[in-house]
Amino acid sequence: MANKSKKEAATSNREDLTSHIDAFLKGGGKVQQIPSGVSGQTTTSGPRQIVLSHKTS
Questions:
Q1: Is the separation of the CB atoms in 9 and 1 below 8 Å?
Q2: What angle do CA 8, 11, 14 make, to 5 degrees?
Q3: Alpha carbon distance 4, 36 (integer Å)
Q4: DSSP state of 49
Q5: What SS3 class is residue 28?
Q6: Residue 39 has what pLDDT?
Q7: pLDDT band at 6 (very low <50, low <70, confident <90, very high)
Q8: What does the pLDDT read at residue 30?
């Protein structure tokens, strides 16, 4: 792939993705459309900040 141009690589990737999607759908897979604004985040509780170290005396 090092010898391919960016355009050729993009076309190859697109064709590869298309074949994967076709195989998924032919295998009985279904595509679910998620509305805009819906998050995959399952919980909003818990610490909001990262603690890098705990100082001990």
A1: yes
A2: 150
A3: 36
A4: S
A5: coil
A6: 83
A7: confident
A8: 94
